[in-house]
Amino acid sequence: MTPMELTSRVTWESGGAVAVLSLVSGLVGGIPVAAGVGAGGVLAITNFRWLAGRVVSVLGGVPTLGGWALGFGLRLIALACATAGLMATGLVHPLGVVVGLTVLPGALVLRGLRQARAEHGGMGAIEHPPIFSLPGVPDYVTYTWLVMIILVVMSWAATRRMALVPAGVQNCMEVVLEQFNGMIDDVIGHDGRRYLPLIATLGLFILVANLLSLIPGLERPTGNLNTTAACALVVFFAYHYIGIKNQGLKNYARHFMGPVVWLAPLMVPIEIISHLARPLSLSLRLFGNMTGGHILLAIIFFLMGLDGLIGWALSGSLGGALVGGIGGLIMIAFTVGFLYPLKMLVSVLQAFIFVMLTMLYIAGALEHAEDHEGHADRHTEEYL
Question: Are 223 and 287 in contact (CB under 8 A)?
Fold first, then answer.
């Protein structure tokens, strides 16, 4: 596909998306929002076509650096002034303008992904296979075993020379376990410490598996729905078992009948659906967050690689050195300074949310039927 064909297709796709978004936003938010989406989309498409034309001219020849930079700068100033002017008139909604301006970058990313899928098939076009794999064993299983080995080694290192005054790995693990104990005391109560092995194992496993995805060349276990569903099913069966063991089957079944007996025909189906939705929610939330972050990182690396901005910077042309070099440096700074710390934060938060919900489910299973709803709702509002 030639650059002009790509420009034309992206223009048509962006224009169609802007038209649909304008119609929908007009029905939802009124005419100012629709006008903002349309105006932002037109500004973005117009400047994209101008920039695409300049890139084609750079690839076809070597224009003067001063003229190209001056035109690019003036165009950016004009875009900023036009956007500010539209917002200042009050005829368009600022949020609509922002949405309209972001339609075209989204169309570019989707076009690139479709092109990569057509040429190479799936995510393989923007990511390499893991650096280590076992024949006949799925990669997510292999790296699940790796996470288990890491946790076993850490446990062995923390307990092989136990000391009254902890140091090194023992000190680190004791701090982590004290944090788990503190959360258990707050959510379940002091008696909930007997469930520390289950809760801490799940939390540490998910945390290490999430952080493993940040290392290039390694597979992400929690980026596969089989792994997250397995963890969710462990929680599902564990808290039901805990509830039945502590209250007996008859008393635990009263949780599903509601506060009065005559509401049981209505409450039992609702409670069953609610409990069945819990493992689905746990598994899809963790899977979606980790997979989405990984796809974003893969796209950024693909844009920066030898087939992207860095390769363009090394092509030898003036335009490539200017646009590719500056763009590559910006991408590297963005990835190292913002994207990777954000991924680390998301990895920790997802492990925390999974553990917190597990404790809430166990706390609900341990409570008596009459005060189950109120106490669980208080915990949910406090922590989520």
Answer: yes
- Residue 24 sits in the same domain as residue 147: no
Whole-model pTM over 0.70: no
Q: Which helix (H) or strand (E) holds 212?
A: helix 196-212
Task: Decide which of 77, 103, 125 is a domain's last residue.
Answer: 125
Rg (CA), the chain: 27
Contacts 24+ apart (CB under 8 A), 120-123: 123/295, 123/298
CA distances from 89 to 45, 83, 92, 318 (A): 21, 10, 7, 41
> How close are the terminal C-alpha atoms of the chain, in Å?
48
Tally DSSP H helices, then E strands, for the chain.
15, 0
Yes or no: say if 234 and 168 are a contact pair by the CB < 8 Å rule.
no
Asked if residue 313 and residue 275 are part of one domain, the reply reads yes
Report residue 133: phi and psi, to 5°.
-150, 155
Per-residue pLDDT band for 380 (boundaries 50, 70, 90) equals: very low
In angstroms, the CA 190 to CA 332 distance is 47
Q: Confidence band (pLDDT; 50, 70, 90) for 383?
A: very low
Mean pLDDT across the chain, nearest whole number? Answer: 75
> Chain-centre distance of CA 364, in angstroms?
29
Q: How many domains, in total, are found in the chain?
A: 2
Quickly tell me which residue has 């875009």 as its tokens. Answer: 79
DSSP conformation class of 160: T
Please return the burial class of 125, using the count of CB atoms within 10 Å of its CB with bins 0-12, 13-18 and 19+. Answer: middle
> Distances from the Cα of 31 to the Cαs of 20, 24, 92, 138, 377, in angstroms?
14, 10, 8, 52, 40
For residue range 36-70, what is the model confidence (pLDDT) as tens digits?
A: 778 777 777 777 776 666 666 655 554 554 555 55
Is 132 part of a structural domain of the chain? no
Please give the residue range of the domain that contains residue 71.
3-125
Tokens 């349309």 map to which residue? 38
30 & 153 share domain: no
The answer as to whether 130 is a domain residue is no
180 falls within a domain? yes
- The answer to whether residue 271 sits within a structural domain is yes
Mention every residue, 6+ apart, whose C-beta is less than 8 A from residue 72: 51, 54
